[in-house]
Design brief:
Amino acid/polyamine transporter I, mainly alpha, about 625 residues
Length: about 625
C-alpha cells in the first residue's frame, strides 16, 4: 500500500512537471505578445497591469511545479564543475579592448544619427553628461574593487558589490542581479534582431551595389552568419581555454571598428567642411530643453554601460600589466590590477564617448533629412551609401558586423554569468548554473521575436535601476546611512541617485517601458519573497495568488493582440485570450495545492516508516 502510494505520488510529480513546462511555454507566448503590444502604445491601462501580473503568476507557478520533482525525489543538483585553473591572460590592453568592444555596440549605428538630428545641442549635452556620469561610476567601481581586494571579498562583476555590502540573500542584491540578467538578455536579443536585419535584408543590397550577386552573394551572407555563430560558440564554450587568443582577436576587431568609424567621420566632415554650428547652439524641439536634456541622457546611457564587462573579467587579469606608451617611455613600468582595472574602465568610457560624439557631429555636419533617416533600418549604412558611395557602405557594414558581435557576445556571456551566479547563491537549482548559457540562449531566442525598440528601452531602464543599487553599495559597504553627510558618500550618492532619476525620466519617452519595469521590480521582489518561503511555502502562496489573479482577470479581461507567437503557430494553439490564460492559472493552482497535499502525505509516511524502524530496533 505504501509502495503504491509512493508510485502514485511520483506519477503525479511527473504530471506536474509536464504541466509546469507547458505553462512556462504558454506564458512565454503571452509575455512576447504583451511585449510586442507594449512597444506600440504610449500608455497602459489597468487591464494591462492585470494581464502582466497573470503572466508572471502563471510563469512562477510553472517554474515551481517543475522544481518540485527533484525536490520530492531528494535529488541534489550537482554544482557546476569549475574549470581547471587557467593562467591569467588579460592585461591592460586586452581589457581596454573588451570594454571598448562592449561599449561601441550596434546601438551606435542606429541611435546616434537619429538622436543628433532630432535633439541637436541637447543630444550633444546628453552625450557629455552620460560620459561624465559613466566616468564617475567607473571610479566608484574602481574604489569598491580596491576595498574588496583589501578585505579579501568577492569582486567579480557589479552585482557582487551589492552582494558583499548587503548579503547574499538580500532583496537589493537579488533585484540588481536579476535586473542585469534581464537587461543583458534583452540587449543580446536586440543585437540578434539587428544582425538578422543587417545580414539577410541589407547585406545583399550592399553586395549588389558592388556588382556581387547570385551564388557569391548568398555565400557571403551565410558566411557572415557562420562567423557570428562561430564567435559566439568560441566564447561560450572555449573562453577559458582560448583566453589569450580571444583577447588578441578582441583587440584586432576593436581597433578595426574604431579606425572605420574615425575614418568615415573624417570623410563626412570633409564633405561639409564640418558645419556643426546647429549641434552646438541650437535646439528646435518642442518643450523645455532642460527636461529634454535629462530625458535624453537616460535614453542614451545604454551607449556607455559596457565598461562593466572589464570588471567581470577580473579573475582572468594579470596581477600586474604593462601600459602602452607609458611602459615604452618608462621601461619596465607595470601597473597593479587594482589600478589598471579602474584605468581601463575609465579610458574605455572616454574613448567610446569621443567616438560617439565625433561620429554624431560628423553625421550632423552633412545635414541629412531626419524624415528619410527615420525610415531606415540601420541609418549609418544608408548615410555611408548616400554620401560616400557603395565601397564606404561596405566598410561601415564591416564595422557594424564587428560592433554587433562585440555587443551580442559580451551581453550573452554576462547574462549567463548573472543567471549562474543566482543559481550558485541558492536562488535557483544548482543545475541551472551548469546550463545557465542554455537557459539564457533560449530566453534570447524568445525575446528576439519581440519589438526591438521596446527591448532597447527595457534594457536601458533595468540597467539604470541595477546600476543605482550597485553604485550605492559603495556606501553600504562601509555601513553608513545613504544620506549621511560624509565626503566619501558624495560620489556614490550623486551617481546612484542620478541613475534612478535618468531611469524615471524614460517615462516621458516610453511610459509603458517604465510601468513594465516597475511591475518587473515588484515581480522580482515577489520572487524573492517566494524564495524566502521555501518550496513548500511558495506552493501555498502561489496557489492562492493564482486564484486571486484569476478572479481579477475575470473581472477585468484583457484583449490580447491578434499577432500569434511563432511557437503557437507551429503547435496550432488558438489565438491568445484571457480565457486560456485564466484556465492555466486555475490548473496551476489546483496542481500546486495537490502537490502540497502529496508532499505532506509523503512526509507523514516517511516519519511513520522511521518510527516503525525505531520500534523494531528496540
Amino acid at each position: 500500500m505504501a509502495r503504491s502510494g509512493r508510485l502514485g505520488a511520483l506519477a503525479f510529480k511527473y504530471l506536474a512537471l509536464a504541466v509546469g513546462s507547458t505553462v512556462i511555454v504558454i506564458s512565454s507566448g503571452y509575455l512576447m505578445n504583451e511585449l510586442t503590444y507594449l512597444g506600440s502604445v504610449s500608455k497602459l491601462d489597468f487591464t494591462d497591469v492585470v494581464a502582466m501580473a497573470a503572466i508572471f503568476s502563471a510563469s512562477l507557478s510553472g517554474m515551481v511545479l517543475v522544481a518540485s520533482l527533484p525536490s520530492s525525489l531528494r535529488v541534489k543538483f550537482e554544482r557546476i564543475k569549475k574549470f581547471p585553473e587557467v593562467k591569467p591572460s588579460y592585461g591592460f590592453g586586452s581589457l581596454l579592448a573588451v570594454g571598448l568592444g562592449a561599449t561601441l555596440g550596434s546601438p551606435l549605428f542606429i541611435l546616434i544619427p537619429l538622436n543628433i538630428l532630432q535633439f541637436e545641442a541637447v543630444s550633444l549635452g546628453s552625450l557629455i553628461i552620460a560620459t561624465v556620469l559613466s566616468i564617475l561610476m567607473a571610479k566608484v567601481y574602481a574604489n569598491m574593487y580596491t576595498q574588496s581586494v583589501k578585505e579579501g571579498l568577492d569582486a567579480l562583476g557589479g552585482p557582487s558589490f551589492t552582494k558583499v555590502a548587503c548579503g547574499t540573500h538580500s532583496a537589493r542584491y537579488f533585484i540588481s542581479r536579476l535586473s542585469m540578467w534581464v537587461a543583458n538578455t534583452a540587449l543580446a536579443a536586440y543585437s540578434k534582431i539587428v544582425f538578422v536585419v543587417f545580414d539577410f535584408e541589407l547585406m545583399p543590397g550592399v553586395l549588389s551595389g558592388l556588382g556581387i550577386t547570385g551564388f557569391l552573394s548568398v555565400f557571403i551572407v551565410w558566411s557572415i552568419t557562420g562567423v557570428f555563430i562561430g564567435w559566439t560558440v568560441l566564447n561560450a564554450l572555449f573562453e577559458q581555454r582560448l583566453l589569450k587568443l580571444i583577447g588578441y582577436l578582441q583587440i584586432a576587431m576593436t581597433t578595426g571598428l574604431i579606425a572605420i568609424l574615425a575614418y568615415q567621420s573624417y570623410l563626412f566632415g570633409s564633405i561639409s567642411s564640418w558645419n556643426i554650428s546647429g549641434a552646438l547652439f541650437h535646439y528646435s524641439g518642442s518643450g523645455n530643453w532642460l527636461l529634454a536634456l535629462v530625458v535624453n541622457t537616460g535614453y542614451l546611457y545604454i551607449l556607455f554601460f559596457g565598461f562593466q564587462e572589464i570588471q567581470a573579467l577580473e579573475r582572468d587579469a594579470h596581477a600586474f600589466s604593462s601600459v602602452p606608451i607609458v611602459s615604452w617611455v618608462k621601461r619596465g613600468y607595470k601597473m597593479a590590477k587594482a589600478t589598471y582595472l579602474g584605468a581601463a574602465m575609465i579610458l574605455s568610457v572616454v574613448i567610446a564617448a569621443a567616438i560617439n560624439i565625433l561620429y554624431g557631429l560628423a553625421v550632423y555636419s552633412i545635414h541629412p533629412s531626419y524624415a528619410v533617416l527615420l525610415k531606415q533600418q540601420i541609418p549609418a549604412m544608408y548615410l555611408a551609401n548616400a554620401f560616400l558611395g557603395p565601397v564606404q557602405e561596405l566598410l561601415i557594414a564591416v564595422a557594424f558586423l564587428i560592433a554587433t558581435i562585440t555587443t551580442f557576445v559580451p551581453s550573452f556571456l554576462a547574462a549567463s554569468r548573472h543567471l549562474g551566479a543566482l543559481a550558485e547563491d541558492g536562488f535557483m537549482p544548482h543545475a541551472v548554473s551548469k546550463l545557465s548559457y542554455v537557459f539564457t540562449l533560449i530566453a534570447i531566442l524568445i525575446l528576439a521575436f519581440g519589438d526591438e525598440n521596446f527591448l532597447i528601452d527595457v534594457t536601458d531602464f533595468l540597467v539604470l535601476v541595477s546600476l543605482g543599487f550597485i553604485t550605492l553599495s559603495a556606501i553600504w559597504l562601509k555601513k553608513r546611512p545613504v544620506l549621511a553627510f560624509h565626503k566619501e558618500n558624495v560620489l556614490p550618492t550623486v551617481v546612484g541617485l542620478s541613475c534612478f532619476v535618468a531611469g524615471a525620466a524614460i517615462y516621458l519617452i516610453s511610459p509603458s517601458v517604465v510601468i513594465f519595469g516597475m511591475v518587473y521590480i515588484a515581480a522580482a521582489y515577489l520572487i524573492y519573497d517566494i524564495y524566502e518561503l521555501g518550496l513548500f511555502g511558495s506552493q501555498l502562496f502561489l496557489g492562492l495568488f493564482d486564484v486571486l489573479v484569476y478572479v481579477v482577470l475575470r473581472l477585468y479581461p484583457h484583449s490580447f493582440s491578434t499577432q500569434s507567437f511563432f511557437l503557437f503557430e507551429w503547435l496550432r494553439i488558438p489565438t491568445l485570450s484571457t480565457g486560456l490564460l485564466s484556465e492555466f492559472l486555475i490548473i496551476s493552482s489546483a496542481l500546486l495545492f495537490a502537490n502540497v497535499s502529496i508532499e505532506v502525505y509523503l512526509r507523514n509516511r516517511s516519519r511513520e516508516t522511521e518510527a516503525a524502524k525505531l520500534l523494531t530496533a528496540l
